[in-house]
Design goal:
The longest helix is centred in the middle third of the chain and has 10 residues. It is elongated, with a radius of gyration of 27 Å. A hairpin with a 4-residue loop joins β8 and β9. The N and C termini lie far apart (67 Å). The strands form three sheets. A seven-stranded antiparallel β-sheet has the order 6-7-8-9-10-11-12, with no helix packed on it. The chain has a five-stranded mixed beta barrel with strand order 1-2-3-5-4. A two-stranded antiparallel sheet has the order 13-14. About 2% of the residues have low confidence. With 251 residues, the chain is mainly beta. The chain is 8% helix and 30% strand.
């Protein structure tokens, strides 16, 4: 139990075991005090903020390798019996560190944004905040060889703290941009097959190898009384105007 005069300290810890279904409690190893202790002797802490879930490569995933597990800051009592997981920890936390060894790749993200033909006017470094990225976890998962049905890949969730604009990028090329003057969605890598949708106040543009629109019961284009129709057969002409058949129209 925490008393009014109980001291709380910040300590760096290794993630030993992720929370299981039905429990957000995580097994943590306080560094360096608990190096060498068995898992059954380690403390279990819940996230400090209710409803917040922390997930990452654990010592269990890394077959007991502390160097390749995710690191977190925990707020705990000096005897480590009571504590909470506060946030992810940077690898560089000493006073001698002048910069991080792995800063987020602003230049690469900016280039990716331009390749998507999206506006870069609000994508200014001094105004950008990384809401979430799994880049550190990806490096660790690759080191310990964790694999699944889908490729281990990096993602970024970025916010412009002044304009409120937001970008979500996946390493595969799939991206979402929410801007003051439009929305852009892309699926697929820029140099491969991809689909692209942009929406501005006066236009919606869809680009893809194949476009299918399916109205299960009814499909309307506007409210002008026009109907969608096609022509099958050879080209013909009406009053000198050529009418070309639609190559492929399915219903």
């Amino acid at each position: 139990m925490i008393e009014d005069n109980t001291a709380l300290i910040f300590r760096r810890a290794s993630l030993v075991s992720n929370g299981k279904i039905g429990s957000d409690v995580m097994t943590m190893r306080i560094l360096p005090d608990m190096i060498g202790l068995s898992q059954k002797d380690l403390p279990k802490y819940a996230p400090m903020n209710p409803g917040t879930l922390f997930k990452g490569p654990s010592e269990e995933d890394a077959h007991g390798d502390v160097d390749n597990s995710a690191k977190y800051w925990v707020l705990c009592t000096p005897d480590f019996k009571i504590g909470w997981v506060f946030c992810e920890a940077n690898n560089e936390y000493s006073i001698e560190s002048t910069k991080t060894r792995a800063p987020y790749m602003y230049k690469n993200i900016y280039t990716h944004l331009r390749r998507l033909h999206l506006t870069t006017s609000s994508f200014r470094y001094p105004e950008l905040k990384i809401l979430q990225t799994n880049s550190k976890h990806v490096d660790l998962y690759n080191k310990i060889g964790t694999k699944g049905k889908k490729k281990t890949a990096i993602s970024y969730d970025i916010l412009n703290v002044r304009t409120g604009e937001r970008w979500i990028f996946l390493e595969s090329g799939t991206s979402l941009a929410l801007m003051q003057d439009g929305i852009a969605l892309r699926v697929g890598a820029p140099n491969k097959d991809h689909s692209f949708i942009t929406m501005t106040p006066d236009k919606i543009q869809i680009i893809s190898n194949n476009v299918e629109i399916w109205g299960r019961n009814k499909m309307s284009l506007g409210k002008h009384g026009y109907q969608v129709c096609g022509m099958i057969g050879a080209p013909t002409a009406v009053d000198g105007s050529p009418l070309l058949p639609i190559a492929d129209m399915t219903c």
